[in-house]
Amino acid sequence: MAIAKHLSEEGLQIVVLEKEKRSGESTSSRNSGVIHAGMYYPENSLKAKLCVEGNNLLYHYARKKNIPHKKIGKYIVSTNESEEKKLIQIYENGKKNSVDLEIISKTDLKEKLPYLSAVSGIFSPNTGIIDVPELIKSLEFDIWQNDGLISFNTKCLKVKKNCNDFEIYCDSSEKFKIKSKLLINASGLQSYETSKNFSFLPKELLHPLYYAKGHYFKYTGQHPFTNLVYPINSESSLGIHVGFDMSGQLRFGPDLVWVKDLDYKFEINAKERFIKSIKAYWPDLDSDKLNEDYVGIRPKIQNKSENMRDFSIIGPKDHSLEGFVNLQGIESPGVTSSLAIAKFVSNLLL
Q1: In the CATH hierarchy, which top-level class contains the domain 1-70+134-206+307-350?
Q2: What are the residue ranges spanned by the domains of the chain?
Q3: Of all helices (H) and strands (E), which one includes residue 251?
Q4: Is the Cα dihedral 247, 252, 255, 261 positive or negative?
Q5: I need a surface site. Which of 8, 97, 177, 294 has the fewest CB within 10 A?
Q6: Burial of 268 (0-12, 13-18, 19+ CB in 10 A)
């Protein structure tokens, strides 16, 4: 949506082919709604660059368009001395990425967050939350304002490359064909399956996707939290953290469960895992107030035995096909980076 919005502002005639009945139905509406700051990602990676740039662009866009959002800040906390080394590494990596961070001592942490069982922490003032469905609506409106078209319930069946354009074969209750000078595949969880329908794209440039399910639980009743709180992360996940929606509803998640299918059902033992993880940093958790909320699935291009991999955004310099960009592995921080990704893709094409 952000790419289409940006290209429509460049004066191009845009058509968005959306498989679902609404935009953002598969992934964007099933995440934590966090505006990330960029401290976790390797220096000079696309995730680091586009997250830091996207953070600024998203706050500016949200203010301009009156999209509900809050810059509430985030604490990353270590719960034992063995995690403090990792905390310092996150801090140092964040500074390399030009992220505004502050180290919080155990004494200050006890004063600011007395309810946490934590040894030390980092505070990120530029982390926040945003109403993602309202963000999507705003992007849609911009596309329509620029005479763009969004075709819902439309599947891309295959694409052929001719001398001067792409022939895109579609199915939306009836089959039809579109000719276009430019083609961008930003189909998230379907990006690998969609890419396989491009006869002109070398198979070695495709990334098989691995599905990482994340559960979210909401918490009813009184609680002491006013900021986001993240435990120390693993290689694949930012951990079961404290989050909020725009109404102030407290929720926890996501965890990470590798799955083979796009299944949005709750795993049987998910709550037990959440209780154990949350009590490590918030011992006063009342587990009876923890209830199932929703499930999301991330489109990862690394499997569970591999370290976190960067966004895959390949353009004409990579595959020698003018007018074509293929995006895969756009997981977190995808929403935060979305407007920066749009600029990046536009630069590859124009």
Answers
A1: alpha beta
A2: 1-70+134-206+307-350, 74-125, 210-300
A3: strand 250-252
A4: negative
A5: 177
A6: exposed
What is the rounded radius of gyration, in angstroms, for the C-alpha atoms of the chain? 21
CA gap 155, 143 in Å, rounded: 20
Gap between the Cα atoms of 228 and 243, Å rounded: 5
Q: Which two tokens stand for residue 338?
A: 């979305």
Task: Name the residue among 342, 349, 348 with its Cα closest to residue 6.
Answer: 342
Fold of 210-300: D-Amino Acid Oxidase; Chain A, domain 2 (3.30.9)
Helices H, strands E: what count in the chain? Answer: 9, 20
Per DSSP, the residues of 258-293 read EESS---SPPTTHHHHHHHHHHTT-TT--GGGEEEE
> pTM of whole model > 0.70?
yes
- pLDDT per residue as tens digits for the range 174-207: 999 999 999 999 999 999 999 999 989 988 999 9
